[in-house]
């Protein structure tokens, strides 16, 4: 759309069954309530989170135990991010013009295939780490592209923060229980425990595919315009510029911390059970934090929470300066769990509100979801490349340089706040500029 004229504002709620139709002004209670489709989508997301949480930490540990190669873990993550980015871009046409629910199911099914591949490869998995990473990236790309589009269609600005809070609750519950169960099984069964948890993930993904058939098929609308959303970045007045940069810096932190923290816990303890316990404790704290922040946060207060969250996420890294041991990692993990919802909920809700700001944006919601993921994955790729470069040229043995590297990567949310606050101002004022 042109950024030179004020966009037509839609009613507060987009009707699920006719997203481009005229919607009646809903009551406040209607805005905040969930229908059956939203509950089903949360169920599918919860199963996906449970299956992933059961094994994702231990895939990295499994490959590291075989290879003892820090750089390989980085390449494994980098392959995921690159393949995920390409999948988002290419699958956008499928989501918009054909059947987005089949894309969702394909993502879950490919996740199941990934764990089946690991089971078949066994001790040879490290040799095929890039293949496994590619499968993980492609499956996540399919799932999250379709999920985010459907999530946008069945929520509205009145219940989006609440939905994100519930999604965070489910993810935290899965992250609390599943890794702890995995740690117990591996501690008792040894290497056979890896076979058990990877098999369990495979089974849960299959269940997720089955339940996804209860989600209604959503109407395909319009033609997929490959570079439509990316062209928005060419205008200095486009709100997508600060949105994209905010997502980029969010991705830098995620790209490294999503695999490195769990690996560090295992390396300093050499114990899968303690890794599972670490995840249990931190996820339990995150569970309460997501519940509380999801209830407290409102669109007008997003910037305040975002600033508090970004500053706190940097400060909680200071214990690692003392020593890289289990206790210090646990303090860091608990602090992150407390403050992370303050950071992630405002960013997620703000970007999706931007996608729904007017009729033309809603008509191109698939393209904008692809742009959103492009920003995130560009940051993840950048962060992972920095990690690989650090490991290859400096190494992880020197404590101070490694902690400085982690501090720099972990402080990237501050830049997210700098850009997202401009986006929030745009959304609150309803103007065609984020400056």
What coarse outline follows from CA principal-axis ratios? globular
What's the architecture in CATH terms?
Up-down Bundle
**Percent in strands:** under 5%
Distance between the termini: 18 Å
User: In the residues, how many domains can be counted?
Assistant: 1
- What is the residue-averaged pLDDT? 80
CATH superfamily: MFS general substrate transporter like domains
Q: In the CATH hierarchy, what is the class? A: Mainly Alpha
The number of strands is 0
- Profile the largest sheet: none
Write down the Rg.
21 Å
- Point out poorly predicted stretches: 1-32, 431-435
Query: What order do the helices and strands follow?
Result: HHHHHHHHHHHHHHHHH
Indicate the CATH topology. Answer: Growth Hormone, Chain: A
Protein name: MFS transporter
Membrane topology: Multi-pass membrane protein
Keywords: Membrane, Transmembrane, Transmembrane helix
Subcellular location: Cell membrane
How would you concisely characterize the structure shown here?
The chain crosses the membrane at residues 38-64, 70-91, 103-122, 128-151, 163-181, 193-215, 247-269, 275-293, 305-322, 328-355, 376-394, 400-420. The chain has helices spanning 28-32, 36-67, 70-97, 100-121, 129-154, 160-189, 192-212, 228-231, 240-269, 272-296, 302-315, 319-322, 326-355, 359-363, 365-393, 399-410, 413-429. The protein is mainly α and 435 residues long.
Q: What would you say this structure looks like, in words?
A:
- The chain is globular.
- The chain has a single domain, classed as MFS general substrate transporter like domains (Growth Hormone, Chain: A, Up-down Bundle).
- By secondary structure, it is mainly alpha-helical.
- The chain contains 17 helices and no strands.
- The relative contact order is 0.15.
- Its main location: membrane.
- This is MFS transporter.
- It is found in: Cell membrane.
- It is a multi-pass membrane protein.
- Keywords: Membrane, Transmembrane, Transmembrane helix.
